[in-house]
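Batch manifest, entry 17 of 40.
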Amino acid sequence: MQRLSCIFWLGLKEMMSLRRDWVMMALLVWSFTLAPIMEATGVASSVNNASIAFADEDNSPLSRALATAFFPPEFQPVVQIVPGSGAAHMDAGRFLFVIAVPPGFEKDVRGGRTPEIQVLIDATAMEQAGIGASYITNILGSEIRRFAIGADLLDASTVDIILRSAFNPNRDTVRFAGIVALIGQIMWLTTILTGAAMIREREHGTIEHLLAMPIAPFDIAIAKIWANAAVVLVAAGLSLTFVMQGSLGISIAGSKALFLFGTALFLFTATALGVFLATLARSMAQFALLVMLVVLPMLMLSGGETPIESQPDWLQAGTLILPSRHYMSASQAIVFKGAGVETVWPEFVWMTFLGIALLATSLMLFRRSVVHSA
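Output type: structure tokens
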């Protein structure tokens, strides 16, 4: 009981030290407020508010119908420009897309010929340009086909293919990217806070003062783990409520309590990872490099950026030892699909097993490093 009390008060001491570290506090606030908002809304994988112009040399019912087929929020209102001035407008950066309909376009369609529509794209905006080209092609093709069926130039299809997206019907990238960003911040911050606390006390000589007291290295490590995990867990819960749901309007399909429970299991593993990296590093600079070399690949291979199924077979097997993969899989199932504990319990078991193994290794190395330094 006395040992648990000692670990508790050491953890409170850790929280007090964090409160006085304004740099870490600023990083903590930034990582769970503005950072996920910017990551979720700053980089879109779909066309949004793209500027578009229309140069209509045909001025027919079909060409006018094509000009009215583009709607917000994907596109801005279509601007009619003088034919032949599209390149100049794009050079001036006024439009991302310019569509030019040649004269006699509807006449050629009615005559069964295959006229061409010119689409100019400003490819300096690579993400929007690549996706927008597909959007425009599908919109124009659908409108021309609808006109041809109405004019009895083409038979209507006997089968209509209707696509329905599960769990994200509107294919809203913000909803998906926001949660992935939050999970990434949880992993970064937990590892950095725990490891930086270890390095800071070693550089300031605080470890030697603690060892002069009747405290074991195990108590020091466990205190740092629970204190930093508790801080990140509270910050993640507040960010989920006020930033994800409040600011970004992301709906949580499953249980928020179950998501936070899975987060607590992952924090147990991530803090142990922070202790492990801090034990290997001899300075804050070395620790920062180790974080980049270890945490960044774990995030990239977690399944948040690209699905696990898209990775090579040998790499898929390797990611089973990454706690980030199991946390990402469980979080997406809970948040997007409304999964319960009966679905995500294997991921929870994996995280627990990996956390215990990593914690045992970290404590062994930490005890050894403390004994040698003493």
